[in-house]
Amino acid sequence: MILVTGGAGYIGSHTIKALLGRGYEVVALDNLSTGHREFVLCDEFVEVDLLDYPALKKAFSRYPIRSVIHFAARTAVGESVENPRIYYENNVVGGLNLLRAMFEHGVTEFIFSSSAAVYGDPESLPIPEEHPKRPKSPYGRTKQIFEEILSDYARAYGLRYVALRYFNAAGSDPEGTIGEWHDPEPHLIPIVLEAALGLRDHVEIFGTDYDTPDGTCIRDFIHVADLAEAHVLALERLREGRASSIYNLGTGVGHSVREVIETCKRVTGREIPVVEGPRRPGDPPALVADPTRARQELDWKPRFTSLEEIIATAWEWMLRRHGRG
Ligand code: UDP
Questions:
Q1: HEC states along 37-92?
Q2: Confidence (pTM)
Q3: d(CA 172, CA 178)
């Protein structure tokens, strides 16, 4: 059985769907602080906070867990600057509790949700896994620290792991009932689509004076279903006996904030009022993955290669979620 922590969250819920599609047995764990209970598509669910070690141990005693895919974490960069304590506690201490419970139950296979936030401002593009790591926020630091912990635990205790560094997760399950839903919503594509739907007056562009072709930031948007697929492949490689490793997950193609807004206008056929504002502190001008290693070693190839397709799935979900679909 596979334990998926954060199984009620955005990427966790899509990964559970992918695992179930391959016939795996799954138990989801979530404290429901930001996740949605109705996103959990597997039958087995435990509402547990990783900081509650006795409850966590009980979950391990109750299910025959062989592998763990760990998503449960706080993920808002801005919030991590204002309140780093909850980031270090949830993302580092919570993760350490999870590893401890795993070892007590003889579980050594681990897939970790890391982030392109570990890189900070890139020296050059696209970014390979060996790029120096200088995270710009407490959030990014929790991911970097946990990657170091995994490496030390692998050497000392025989942990076998894959860390996956996501670029900008986007889109929603094309078939369905789960999608991107954060409250409040910090991410560009859902914000732009909410403006298209009339739920916001306008979209504010955070910075138009970057050293990029149109002056706005550039990001590598990767579809959540492609991220989910990468987790399944990573787990399968680990089970085949491949060594621990780290992979970037992105398409390798960047799109600017203005391009995202224009594409949203085309996909939705609606007007989207735009206001140009100042830079958001901590935003790197451009982040684009070099995903070569994941392609070669995991045989991973994103299915959603155009921004238009990715946004179309996000729009369908947004319409459904607000009862307009
Ligand atoms: N962004 C923006 N307006 C918004 C939200 C985001 O201009 O209302 C920009 C943000 O400054 C960044 C890009 O969109 O350059 C992607 O931001 P997001 O928060 O979606 O992801 P991040 O790259 O921070 O993980």
A1: HHHCCCCEEEECCCCCHHHHHHHHHHCCCCEEEECCCCCCHHHHHHCHHHHHHHHH
A2: 0.97
A3: 7
Is residue 150 within 8 Å of residue 112, measured between CB atoms? yes
Atom 11 (ligand 1) nearest CA:
206
Beta bridge partners of 276: 205
CA distance 274 to 205: 7
Cβ neighbours of residue 321 closer than 8 Å, sequence gap 6 or more: 179, 181
Helix (H, G, I), strand (E, B) or coil at 205: strand
Whose Cα sits closest to atom 10 in ligand 1? Answer: 206
Q: What is the rounded CA–CA span in Å between residue 36 and residue 50? A: 17
| Cα of 13 from ligand 1 centre, angstroms | 23
Q: Which of 24, 87, 139, 153 is catalytic?
A: 139
Q: Which atom of ligand 1 is nearest to the CA of 260?
A: 14
Reported as a single tens digit per residue, the pLDDT across 165-208 is: 999 999 999 887 899 998 888 899 999 999 999 999 999 999 99
Class of 2-167+222-249 in CATH: alpha beta
End-to-end CA distance of the chain: 35
- CB–CB of 279/209 below 8 Å? yes
Going by alpha carbons, the residue nearest to atom 19 of ligand 1 is: 187
Inter-CA distances, 251 with 79, 166, 188, 205, 297, Å? 27, 10, 17, 23, 16
pLDDT tens-digit series, residues 242-295: 999 999 999 999 999 999 999 999 999 999 999 999 999 888 999 999 999 999
